[in-house]
Design brief:
The chain has about 850 residues and is an alpha/beta fold. Among the domains are: about 250 residues, 5'-nuclease (Rossmann fold, 3-Layer(aba) Sandwich), CATH 3.40.50; about 200 residues, Ribonuclease H-like superfamily/Ribonuclease H (Nucleotidyltransferase, domain 5, 2-Layer Sandwich); about 110 residues, 5' to 3' exonuclease, C-terminal subdomain (DNA polymerase, domain 1). The strands form 8 sheets. The protein has a 6-stranded mixed sheet with strand order 3-2-1-4-5-6. InterPro entries: 5-3_exonucl_a-hlix_arch_N, 5-3_exonuclease, 5-3_exonuclease_C_sf, DNA-dir_DNA_pol_A_CS, DNA-dir_DNA_pol_A_palm_dom, DNA/RNA_pol_sf, DNA_polI_H3TH, DNA_polymerase_1. It catalyses: DNA(n) + a 2'-deoxyribonucleoside 5'-triphosphate = DNA(n+1) + diphosphate.
């Protein structure tokens, strides 16, 4: 969803004036409010990277509210002279920074914000009202937040209720009762905030209060309400934000425009805002020392030795090529004339717009919503950083990736590489200006790409980059665009059922403890468990007793199990059952998750909004959530899932004969493992023996020792060690794999997947033994889990290229497709065949599949 930021200029300007000590420019003009306001604005633009942002101004003349009530704002004093002198600078800054601004005769900034909020929601945008004024609580709704940047707080509906005690739909009534001394809104004399909240907890609205005045508790409160009825109803008119103000309809009216660079620099120099000038325009002196630096060209630097806590990153900077470009703006028609078949284009965006570039030209695309369709037609080959996000912005459907610096940086060192500025600094021994100009950004992208290409070559990372990550980007784009249908009615029923169960658990927990308390508060829970109930306390944190899962599992009391159940159901309800319906797009009634291709350290994909990777499936309640993911009308879902993929990879890598034999004979791997380590016939393996063997199988792949296995199985550490020893006696090559992998990881500092994807293990350099042991476990698991992730990626690419079915989701080792039942029956065998033969291993890859009306049926 596009995001629209609405700035309540007067409120933020006043707060800046009183928050910043007096400052003057070289000419003696006061500038403290400008300084504070600009600080807030730059921080907002840097962190939020808004595309649509509007300054909303009050007018000098009175608004329509003065006609309703002559006393409205009658007590307001004149604006301080030092503040009045600074107002023109704010308006000038808006002009030079390309920020749209609105003021409407007869209305206040609040009303403009109300109208723009309505416009934004009508256009399916998320709206952020940037202000510290509580009156905007009445506008908060799904996808609309009140954002107090000075307090770093965003209020949604729950936040409004928590802060002021009333829901957003009651906020006007609340303000009508309490009034507003600063605006001389009378309200109900004698009733304050607590009284208003109490009334609105009992009654729906102000009108409901007066219609049921006889039911109001307390003679005094009733008398006050009756005496102030006219003022209360008048106040409601005064505090209601009007959303019918006529505002421009076109998106362009609210999109940030390019800066007027020369004039902006001149103004900052006039105000003596040297820091802002450096942050906005950069400086040749702006360099940083990277943790580890190697020079292969004319650029040189000296790096300090990394501290214990620092991440060691190989930095390789080639000579920088900063150039000037023919910079201009083009509409769709002009761009169509400029493009040609198979052209290579750079693409990036910032707060000022969308830009495409060649070796000589830098073009701002004025109507970029059509850019994707146009460049798809010309089969443009794109270069950039995080191309998938850029393609979404411009509406591309079948784009072609030539180069993506984000994915290259991820191949070089897996982890979070989502922020271009941070990654650029990390590898280039340089920093970008906080709001770099388009030319500066383009040069940064080009130079960063040159460095990444050179570095990829040196670490043999091209194959992983070119064969896996780069071609996958357009497939993920397609999957995100398709989304998946959600059964909101089923989720509503599940929510009600969960609420009943949660309430019953809460009642049982309170009965066990002997009193009511907030179960969701770790502090209150700790006091109840360890002070009142005198249960043995475990870990203690800075804020009190630890009540994490490990601590609760160690408590031998019925209340612990109840609390764990309460937490599980509460999280399931809030994170998925209640949240999923709010994520459904009104355009197609589907949920569109975002797949993060460059985030995890393992090479696996992750997803957000919703996080599909973490939907709990081990419990019956968790499995029910999958029933809510449904096929579209006249369609079915196909789930295709790799069976025991990580253990099969372990068998391949270790070449262990017993492990390979079990898979070659298609045995139940956990039962076969149990038969080996317990020395019994396969037919004599009990469910308990299989369960312990399963724990060992998965534990070995994650570097688990006797302590972890003992915790998992609820046995002594001696028993766990004995089981592990027997496992390694029967599976000797697995032991050799573990020992050799740890040794190589210490020598090289990294491990590799079967396809050459590296996982650097920085923890191995730590002097902290616990951290070092974690690094060794990660080293054991990374080649296995990373290879599994690469296999799934390769399968996705193969299937996408060769089978005409719509791929919707990827969750760990599982792929979800949506088609007619006829097509799924026709193509499912081809999908299975491709996935099972995607890479030859010493053991066969096995895939299970099912077709159904929902994810649970097809799983």
């Amino acid at each position: 969803m596009k995001k629209l930021y609405l700035i309540d200029v007067s409120a933020m300007f006043f707060r800046a004036f009183y928050a910043i000590r007096p400052l003057t420019s070289p000419s003696g003009v006061p500038v403290n409010a400008v300084y504070g306001f600009l600080s807030m604005l730059i921080k907002l633009m840097k962190e939020e990277k808004p595309e649509y942002l509007v300054f909303c101004y009050d007018r000098k003349e009175a608004s329509f509210r003065k006609d309703l009530y002559d006393g409205y704002k009658a007590h307001r004093t004149e604006m301080p002279d030092d503040l009045q002198k600074q107002v023109p600078y704010i308006k000038k800054l808006a002009e030079l920074l390309g920020i749209p601004a609105l003021e409407v005769p007869g209305y206040e900034a609040d009303d403009i914000i109300g109208a723009l909020t309505k416009w934004g929601r009508h256009h399916d945008m998320e709206v952020f009202i940037v202000s510290g004024d509580k009156d905007f609580g009445q506008l908060v709704q799904p996808h609309v937040w009140l954002y107090d940047t000075m307090k770093e707080v965003r209020y949604d509906a729950a936040g409004v209720l928590a802060k002021w005690g009333v829901r957003p739909d009651q906020f006007i009534d609340y303000l009508s009762i309490v009034g507003d001394a600063s605006d001389n809104v009378p309200g109900v004399k004698g009733i304050g905030e607590k009284g208003a909240v109490k009334l609105l907890q009992q009654f729906k609205s102000l009108e409901d209060i007066y219609e049921n005045i006889d039911q109001v508790e307390g003679k005094s409160v009733k008398e006050k309400l009756i005496a102030s009825k006219d003022n209360a109803l008048l106040s409601k008119k005064l505090v209601t934000i009007v959303d019918s103000v006529q505002v421009p309809e076109a998106y362009e009216a609210y999109r940030l425009q390019p800066w007027k660079t020369d004039e902006l620099r001149a103004l900052l120099q006039e105000l003596n805002f040297k820091t802002f000038e450096k942050n906005l325009f950069g400086s040749n002196a702006d360099t940083v020392t990277a943790p580890s630096f190697v020079s292969t060209a004319s650029t040189t630097a000296v790096a300090a030795a990394p501290k214990e806590s620092e991440e060691v990153t190989p930095v390789l900077v080639i000579a920088k090529d900063d150039r000037e470009f023919n910079q201009r703006s083009m509409n769709t028609r002009e761009l169509a004339e400029f493009l040609h078949e198979d052209q290579h284009l750079w693409g990036f965006s910032d707060t000022r717009g969308v830009f495409v570039g060649t070796d000589t030209d830098l073009i701002e695309v004025s109507d970029f919503e059509y850019l994707g369709k146009l460049t798809d037609t010309f089969k443009v080959r794109w270069c950039g950083f995080d191309l998938k996000s850029f393609w979404h912005k411009m509406g591309a459907r079948t784009p072609i990736a030539s180069w993506d610096s984000q994915l290259a940086a991820y191949v070089l060192k897996a982890g979070d590489v989502s922020d271009f500025g941070k990654v650029y600094t990390k590898y280039m021994a340089d920093v970008l200006p906080e709001l770099a100009s388009p030319t500066q950004l383009f040069n940064a992208h080009r130079n960063f790409a040159a460095t990444m290409k050179d570095h990829l070559h040196k670490v043999n990372g091209q194959k992983v980059f070119e064969d896996f990550d780069l071609p996958l980007a357009r497939i993920l784009l397609s999957m995100e665009r398709l989304g998946i249908r959600i059964d909101t009615d089923l989720l509503k029923k599940q929510s009600a059922d969960l609420q009943t169960e949660i309430a019953a658990l809460e009642k049982a927990i309170h009965a066990e403890s002997g009193e009511s308390f907030n179960i969701g508060s770790p502090k209150q829970l700790g006091v109840i468990l360890f002070e009142k109930m005198k249960l043995p306390a475990g870990k203690k944190t800075k804020t009190g007793y630890s009540t994490d899962e490990e601590v609760l599992l160690g408590l031998e009391h019925p209340i612990a199990k109840l609390i764990l159940q309460w937490r599980e159901l509460s999280k399931l309800k809030s994170t998925y059952v209640d949240a999923l319906p709010t994520m459904v797009s009104p355009k197609d009634d589907r949920v569109h998750t975002t797949f993060n291709q460059a985030l995890t350290t393992t090479g696996r994909l992750s997803s957000t909004a919703p996080n599909l990777q973490n939907i709990p499936i081990r419990t019956a309640r968790g499995q029910q959530v999958r029933k809510a993911f449904i096929a579209a009308p006249r369609m079915k879902l196909l789930s295709v899932d790799y069976s025991q993929i990580e253990l099969r990879i372990l068998a391949h890598i270790s070449e262990d004969p017993n492990l390979c034999k079990a898979f070659a004979e298609d045995l139940d791997i956990h039962a076969a493992t149990a038969a080996e380590i317990y020395g019994v016939e396969l037919k004599d393996v009990t469910s308990d023996l299989r369960r312990s063997a399963k724990a060992v199988n998965f534990g070995i792949a994650y570097g688990q020792g006797a302590f972890g296995l003992a915790e998992n199985l609820g046995i002594s550490r001696t028993e766990a060690k004995d089981i592990i020893d027997r496992y390694f006696t029967r599976f000797k090559n697995v032991r050799e794999y573990i020992d050799n992998t740890i040794k190589l990881a210490h020598e090289k500092g990294y491990v590799e997947t079967l396809f050459g994807r590296r996982r650097y293990i920085d923890e191995l350099h730590s002097k902290n033994m616990a951290l070092k042991k974690f690094g060794e476990r990660a080293a054991i698991n990374a080649p296995i889990q990373g290879t599994a992730a690469d296999l799934v990626k390769k399968a996705m690419i193969e299937v996408h290229e060769k089978v005409p079915v719509r791929m919707l989701l990827q969750v760990h080792d599982e792929l979800i497709f949506e088609e007619t039942e006829e097509n799924l029956l026709k193509y499912a065998p081809q999908v299975v065949s491709l996935m099972e033969s995607v890479t030859p291993l010493r053991v066969p890859l096995k895939v299970n599949y099912a077709i159904g009306n929902n994810w649970d049926e097809s799983h």
